[in-house]
Amino acid sequence: MAWSGRLPCFLSCLFIYTLSPCDSHPHWTLPVRPSNDTARKVSDVATEVAAYADVAKQIIELAVFGAAQNRSYRRLADFTDTIGNRVSGSANLEMAIKYMYSALTQNGLDVHLEPVKIPHWVRGKESAEMIVPRVKNLALLGLGSSVGTPPEGIKAEVLVVRSFDELKQRASEARGSRVVFNQPFVSYGETVAYRAFGASEAAKVGAVATLIRSITPFSINSPHTGWQDYQDGVKRIPTACITVEDAEMMWRMSQRGQKIVVRVTMGAKTLPDADSFNVVAEIPGWQYPEQVVLLSGHLDSWDVGQGAMDDGGGAMISWEVLSLIKDLGLRPRRTLRTVLWTAEEQGGVGAQQYYDLHKVNISNFDLVMESDVGTFRPVALQFTGNDAARKVMEEVVKLLAPINTTKLETHAEGTDISPWMQAGVPGASLHVADSRYFWFHHSEGDSMSVQDPQDMNLCSALWAVVSYVVADLQDMLPR
Amino acid sequence: MAWSGRLPCFLSCLFIYTLSPCDSHPHWTLPVRPSNDTARKVSDVATEVAAYADVAKQIIELAVFGAAQNRSYRRLADFTDTIGNRVSGSANLEMAIKYMYSALTQNGLDVHLEPVKIPHWVRGKESAEMIVPRVKNLALLGLGSSVGTPPEGIKAEVLVVRSFDELKQRASEARGSRVVFNQPFVSYGETVAYRAFGASEAAKVGAVATLIRSITPFSINSPHTGWQDYQDGVKRIPTACITVEDAEMMWRMSQRGQKIVVRVTMGAKTLPDADSFNVVAEIPGWQYPEQVVLLSGHLDSWDVGQGAMDDGGGAMISWEVLSLIKDLGLRPRRTLRTVLWTAEEQGGVGAQQYYDLHKVNISNFDLVMESDVGTFRPVALQFTGNDAARKVMEEVVKLLAPINTTKLETHAEGTDISPWMQAGVPGASLHVADSRYFWFHHSEGDSMSVQDPQDMNLCSALWAVVSYVVADLQDMLPR
Fold first, then answer.
1. Cis peptide before A426 (omega within 30 of 0)
2. What is the DSSP secondary structure assignment for residue A227, as one 8-state letter?
3. Which of B221, B244, B447 sits opposite A245 (nearest CB)?
4. Contacts of residue B445 in chain A, CB cutoff 8 Å?
5. Where is this chain's protein located in or outside the cell (chains A, B) (predicted)?
6. DSSP letters of B338-392?
7. For testing the chain B interface, which of A220, A258, A452 should be mutated: the one with the most B CBs within 10 Å?
8. Do residue B448 and residue A248 have CB atoms under 8 angstroms apart?
9. Distance in Å, alpha carbon of B93 to nearest chain A alpha carbon
């Protein structure tokens, strides 16, 4: 996941590259379905949903104990080991899209690519060194969209602050300095403001550069990157994240009254927007193929680690749903569409263009789902929708009793699905036991080693039961 | 702490540099002490120890709640922020010794340095890159005593194994390869054998180099270094630790039948042994100044991180004991001697030379104590001694009831105190809540950020009560 700030402003050049026809899948058989009333009471819906108990068990059996066991994990391992990380604009992201196009096609699914334009920021070479009071290398990661430094770097005395308020109070000390933000981690949603806006806030009081404590509650000297946002009309100064350890060390030094001087060299630059694609694979609905339950994760990652957790896992379970449904010979009433977004990390860039293109058909979007906070042990389904829709979903999650994840929470999350939810389409996201998510997030630690195959089986089962049943109900979710 | 393998063989050139006279400390007052029987029963000892309850409370009050609160933490922060890490043979270690000599002297203690010769291995520049099946930078840390590579590095195909047994079974595949050990972490004591002996075991079957999965149960792409031991008569090949993540990735690749090629460049070399010192500070005993309770930690560290946990914390609480006793105007019957060892990480090199020099007085060593597994929240005192001595110590730890650490465990640990314990001197070590110790151990993550001031207060209080009371009892511990 990226951050939930404002969207970048380079949404342009939108066109359809290829749209595969909806194949008929004549070999797929239809499951038993409840009767076909149109005006129905809550009790009717409960009865209708409860009739899916056997199908739900079949899906869970296949995903968790059957032939599909550990498949999403193996796919994720193969994908991330083969490609590595996949930042917006990179050759790796292009390779990843080709890889997935090929893999989904080989899986017998309807696949097409929808072209979009995405940001192309490159990190270049970067290094940081404390020179005074002693020489120490500082691990750092420049922030997405940051400008670089001159080739010789920027050497400046450091002003360490713990908050934006403290920066304002000490504005007179900031001129010509490098502001180091040593803000404590409160929550990602709150603390990420320092990464996103720290550079512009520091530039407003005359700083020449910033270093920001990584947005994480735990560190093994691990810097975390992420997108940042220059404010219009404010000088653009280089900005990077350093480790919790180094930020705290400089804070202690400053509290002792010690002078601190740091040199940072960053080769970062922004190139012209690049061509990319959202990857779309689907099982067309047998009755209402134009109506869609959309499942998604994003294929891009940051340019560190393997991007297994953020968001390879979300992408793989969204593919796994189609494989499971296909393996069981099922085909829902409506289309089950998996979309693997591009350039989420830059603010949901691919997804915004998808929305702009497809919003004309918004009335056909039944439910939009995204998994982008990890595929650890599933805890609940998060849901955004009106009361009537929630009543339906409360019945649907009861089908997850065999894997003990029958909890329905409020407010789905997901940068990529938020435009749809804001426009009134019901949305769902996966809530997992994510206590360590931000330890690895946007760092070299985002690797296959944090993933667990059994957790991914459970996520896949949940994801598949919910999406299949909603896609197969007689009526779309109320909105 | 280092590893508990065989000792290196460069113990030589031993002499006393300076020995301060035992000052009389006329301003220190004597606490109330129990009566002076010589032949005593267990109940007498219990009564004698119980009479220290008030003194113990004073020590605890001062260390945990009083003016000394957080002092050992602040000292550790100042020390490690100022010096950084301090590997055997480095200028930083020399600086650290000077810093501590000066700080202890300013604290009004009797301080002297005892010269020793220590290993001087230097890391040099090092890098590793997977070239096939794709290009990926591999984080690594060369292992202490490893030879380097030619300047252009060593490029070799990789054989990944999970154990020494598997290496033997696949010996025919090892010739000319780089063996990657991807052994699972079982416990430090068991798994460290791969770091210590992996290179020689691989060389025996014809490997040209090794990469070993870091000895840790948890990783954020963090390589861990440490000492390793070439076997006599076996070819010395370059050896380094890589991250858990990369070892697991190469294992997965090898399981898929993929060819893996890695290039490693290491500038490591061993220079002639260097001059160094054990730092000794003491409060001379008022009655038996020749009899000693020895408190210790090691001042050296690895050349990564800050060496705050391993073992700056142990060194600082061993200093803190003398400060607390002095602040309270106490002076025990026997000498309280704090020794800050040098070159522990190379196998207790400084401590071995201290033992060789002072073992002639072994009958005067009452108790040897070392803290070298972190100064997190104290859980128990670990003790090695005969039954009679244990009975005394069982009474002593009861004095720690105010901080709820009255547990006495068997088997003290500590590379530096083990020669004394093997020779029959009672030993004690600190058992702390160390579940994360090996996450940071010998890595860039060993920093002040893992330390907690209140935990250090508790460790200091425990350390002080135990050492002071034992030093002040009428009789030395039975042995």
1. no
2. B
3. B447
4. 219-221, 245
5. Endoplasmic reticulum; Golgi apparatus; Lysosome; Secreted
6. EEEES--TTTSHHHHHHHHHHGGGGGGEEEEEE--S--SSEEEEEEE--HHHHHH
7. A220
8. yes
9. 14
Determine the pLDDT at residue A33: 47
Catalytically annotated residues of A? 344
Lowest mean pLDDT among A3-7, A188-192, B198-202, B387-391: A3-7
- Which one, of A245, A217, A207, A241, lies nearest residue A227 by Cα? A241
Name the residue among B78, B220, B439 with its Cβ closest to that of A443.
B220
- Work out the average pLDDT over B275-285: 98
B222 → closest Cβ in A81, A220, A448? A220
**Contact partners, residue B96, CB within 8 Å, separation at least 6:** B79, B83, B86, B299, B300
Contact at CB, A221 and B81, closer than 8 angstroms: no
The residues near B101 (Cβ < 8 Å, ≥ 6 apart) are: B111, B113, B279
CB pair distance less than 8 Å for A81 and B252? yes
Closest CB to A221 among B78, B82, B447:
B447
How close are the terminal C-alpha atoms of chain B, in Å? 27
**Residue A302 pLDDT greater than 50, yes or no:** yes
Encoded tokens for B409: 């465990």
Token reading at B222: 């963090």
CA distance B225 to chain A (A): 14
Q: Does B249 sit within 8 Å of A221, measured CB to CB?
A: no
Q: Kindly indicate the confidence band of residue A40, based on its pLDDT and cuts at 50, 70 and 90.
A: low
Instruction: Extract the tokens encoding B264.
Output: 């490693």
Would you say residue B87 has pLDDT above 80? yes
Active site residue B157: no
Residue of A nearest to B135 (CA): A84
A306: nearest CA partner in chain B: B245
What residues contact residue A412 under an 8 Å CB cut-off, 6+ apart? A369, A370, A382, A383, A384, A421, A427, A428, A429
Task: Give the count of beta carbons closer than 10 Å to the beta carbon of residue A467.
Answer: 28
Angle of the A91-106 helix axis to the A313-327 helix axis, nearest 10: 10
Q: Minimum mean pLDDT among A9-23, A258-272, B28-42, B46-60: which range?
A: A9-23
- pLDDT recorded at residue B1: 75
Lowest mean pLDDT among A343-347, B6-10, B385-389: B6-10
CB A321 within 8 A of CB A369: no
Is A444 in Cβ contact with B220 (below 8 Å)? Answer: yes
The reported pLDDT for the residue numbered B42 is 73
- Is A445 within 8 Å of B216 (Cβ atoms)? no
The answer to whether A443 contacts B81, with C-beta atoms less than 8 Å apart, is no
Distance of CA A156 to the CA centre of its chain: 35
The set of residues, in sequence order, having a beta carbon less than 8 Å from that of A133 and lying 6+ positions away, is A253, A258, A259, A260, B82
The arithmetic mean of pLDDT across residues A303-331, rounded, is 98
Of B205, B206, B209, B212, the C-alpha closest to B191 is: B212
Tokens of A404: 């003990």
Which of A18-22, A29-33, B66-70 ranks highest by mean pLDDT?
Answer: B66-70
Sequence-distant (6+) residues with CB within 8 A of B441 are B1, B188, B215, B216, B224, B309, B310
Q: Are A81 and B249 an interchain contact pair (Cβ–Cβ within 8 Å)?
A: yes
Q: Which of B136, B449, B450, B452 is the best residue to mutate to test the A interface, defined by the most A CB atoms within 10 Å of its own CB?
A: B449
CB A224 within 8 A of CB A214: yes
Chain pair A-B, CB pairs under 8 angstroms: 80
Q: How far is A332 from chain B (nearest CA, A)?
A: 35
Complete domains list, chain A, with CATH: 42-120+272-472 (3.40.630.10), 124-267 (3.50.30.30)
| Residue in A with minimal Cα distance to B220 | A445
Distance separating alpha carbons of residues B219 and A221, to the nearest angstrom:
11
Amino acid at A121: W
